[in-house]
Amino acid sequence: MRTQKYWIILALSLLIVTPDKTSGENILFFFGISTYSHRIPVWPLVEKLVEKGHNVTFVSPFSPKVPNPKVHEFTPKEITLSMEKNTEGPVALHLRSTVKDQSIKSWFGLPNWGLGLCELFLKSPDVRHWISSSKFDLVVIDGLFNDCGLGLAYKFNAPHLIYDTTSIFMWQLEAFGIPNENSWIPDMQYFFPQKMSFLQRLWTTGNSLRCEEFPRSLPPYVIPVGGMHIKENVDPLPKTLENFINGSEKGFVYISFGSSVQISKAPPEIYGAFIEAIKRIKVNFIWKWEGDNLPSNLPSNVFMQKWMPQQALLAHPKIKAFVTHSGLMSIQEAIFNGVPLVSLPVFSEQDYNAERVHTGGYGIRLEITTLTADQLVEALSKILYTPSYKDEMLKKSKAFRDRPMSPADTALWWTEFVLRQGDTSFLKPMSIYQKLLTIQGMG
Ligand SMILES: *[C@@H]1O[C@H](CO)[C@@H](O)[C@H](O)[C@H]1NC(C)=O
Ligand SMILES: *[C@@H]1O[C@H](CO)[C@@H](O)[C@H](O)[C@H]1NC(C)=O
């Protein structure tokens, strides 16, 4: 299903036979080279595992905002310092404004960046001590940057799972024997419109590794578990928000650029376009604004604050649209709640997400670096007054919710499956042994 975006890959190279182990296992989550945002989608699996009596250790450069006392946290400080230095400030929007093909450049830069951090991690005396004094029965590895997790799994003589926070990365296709269907499926790392022209097709096919989550063939050990972080039941809204929403007969639009993009640090003409559009559209707006100061001349139909209970807002019956940076978790929450989108991608796989939203007809994609108030008014008017966007989103929502088990229960079941089975090599697709060209969709 195309909306399911997180995958568990049960990787099979290092296996020990340990039958009937389903509780009290020592499980390592290696998210050592990750941003804070990678914690969020996998956390429900961690909580389910500790509820079942497993002993979970979570390695990450960032401590959790709400720690679970049953989870052991290990925070390698060298990595924390390096990550903070590289991700601070309004980097994302600035990159998009100044480097037009930044999505391609940054994707290619990622593996090297990850490699450097892995080296830093493995050289740390604290880490070496931790490795020599630890034992694990299973290692769950964040799929981006964290290749040194494979070395840890080898060292601990434990089977491992790979958890990808997006769809499969291009460098994983060949490694995991996943059919490369890039003649008809666009790629996550590069942005191309969904209907590819002949030249683009040639180019993507020639570039041998690509991936994403349009309907595609997956080997038996790749399990979609998208949407684990989504709450079935949300907390009630704070009074200030509830009052503001109640004051609007025509409903409200929610604007948020997530946790990494600081819209308050964008050039004033960009957020000025939003303010101008808000003045011209007769609905209420709720805007997650992370700056310390509010912009001047705000119209009365907008409410801004630093933090928003996003899932509760998206679940509110009066919401009409969500203006988003197209982060994967935001899009999944919108799909779950059936809220049509205006997508303004900034970095990472957000272009790819926004493109899917646009061609799927459940939202409209705009370009943030050249945004005008007119464009925003036109897009929002379409979303508010043309029923097809909402209708398409409701169809998506219905399909997204229709699963035999919740995504977190699915992930739990497959994690324990690996613990129970030990040897899962029977799930390995034969294509893993094929040469590159024979598994590409070149026909
Ligand atoms: C649980 O994990 C922690 C941290 O890795 C370790 O110190 C502890 O000994 C483990 N407990 C058991 C019962 O194995
Ligand atoms: C908002 O309206 C709803 C439905 O009319 C009502 O139940 C709720 O109490 C109102 N909330 C506030 C804060 O006025």
Automatic annotation (TrEMBL):
GO cellular component, one term: membrane
PROSITE patterns: UDPGT
EC number: 2.4.1.17
Record's catalysed reaction(s): glucuronate acceptor + UDP-alpha-D-glucuronate = acceptor beta-D-glucuronoside + UDP + H(+)
MF (Gene Ontology): glucuronosyltransferase activity
Family named by the database record: Belongs to the UDP-glycosyltransferase family.
Coiled coil segments of this chain: none
Annotated InterPro entries: UDP-glycosyltransferase, UDP_glucos_trans, UDP_glycos_trans_CS
Signal peptide span: 1-24
UniProt keyword list: Glycosyltransferase, Signal, Transferase
Organism, scientific name: Allacma fusca
Places the protein is found: Membrane
Main location: membrane
Membrane topology designation: Single-pass membrane protein
Stated name of the protein: UDP-glucuronosyltransferase
Pfam family, one: UDPGT
